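Our consortium's second objective concerns turning raw sequence data into structural hypotheses that experimental partners can test. To show how far this objective has progressed, the report includes one record in full. It was chosen at random from the queue rather than selected for favorable results. The single chain below, 432 residues long, was entered without modification.
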Amino acid sequence: METTIRFAPIDVGRWFVWGATALLFAVLPLVFSSGFAITLLSQMGIMVIFALSYNMIFGQGGMLSFGHAVYSGLGAFFAIHALNWIGSGQLWLPVSLVPLVPLVGGVFGAVFGVVFGYVTTKKAGTPFAMITLGIGEMVFSASLMFPAFFGGEGGISSNRVVGEPFLGITFGPGLQVYYLIAAWCFACMVAMFAFTHTPLGRIANAVRDNPERAEFIGYNPQRVRFFVLVVSAFFAGIAGGLSAINFEIVTAENVSAIRSGGVLLATFIGGTMFFFGPILGAVVFVFFAVALSDYTKAWQFYLGVFFVAMVMFAPGGVASLILTNLRVMKHRLFGRLRDPYAGVLLSGLVLLAGVVMVVEMSYHLTLNFAAGSRMRLFGFEVDSAAPGIWLLALGVLAAGALGFEVMRRRFAREWGAVQAEIEERSRREAGV
């Protein structure tokens, strides 16, 4: 009796996407070669891993955590201690094995995932969120209470250049660190994507949607949540280890609620129901936190406004915006939205200009008033205390808000008509 072996068909599209991603990681520092750009790209890579690890419990498992920085932060502390031990000779390793230091963070992130996950995953929903918040505050306080390990307020510093160079690699230049982060980022992205297709990843979705039904068919929801959290903590620890190598310092801020809130914002902005959503969210968040913060002290205000706008107008995140518009393009109906989109964009820019004028002048008057009321705004020098400039700013703000609301309603009507036509076409194609 002959046995026929059948192989699963090769998904050419998926291989193309991953290949293009690897190529993008390789060429990005060649296109954006300045020191600032390399630093920005490195931080984006770390945040991508962190956001994807958070989405494993939030988007896939339905667990809203306010203390996910605990796992990345503790992983970072253990990783930087390992780096110091290597540098002092207490833990001898050649420089060729320094790229494996993030694994130290991953392992200890998973260890603490086991310890804290055993407690937190006994509950779901709001109780889970509150317990994680409490654990996060507990670990943050401990980081200041035990300076022998955590370094107190100053944290623990290190030097990533240890040992003799290996093939000319010392990890001193930022470009070498970027490629180390990019390699880990790509490997973690592939691993986490593969996890979504495992039985554990699939049943995590079932527990998220209907834990009672999952329990009815024989799965323990608490155990599923526990295993998912441990895997998530492992990848968060890797992100922490890479952060320790990149910045060469780890402080109490790495386990703070601010960092936990940051990854929550990044994940939600990108879109929690799509794998590539947190990747987009991480890029946007780092842009606000690093690039925009160099130009304005009000970057957190703008990030908050952007987050509120996403919740109000695109609760599915940036990923949902991209996919829904691709669906419209697929049915060749995007031309009907071109003018409404242009109206929303132009009126939104006017509104943004008004917001920026009011916010920047307010910040200057309250935070930099000792330096005088003169400031530069959009390349022009203005007097932030002059009534005329405030009348102009408020006028631009009011005009932008009115125009945006009119164009938004027009866009909403056209968008609804386009979606209705797409649904009608889909029913006709399905023969309904």
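The partners drew two points from this record. Strands lie at 156-157, 249-250, 374-377, 380-383. The chain has 16 helices and four strands. Both points have been shared with the crystallography group to help prioritize constructs.
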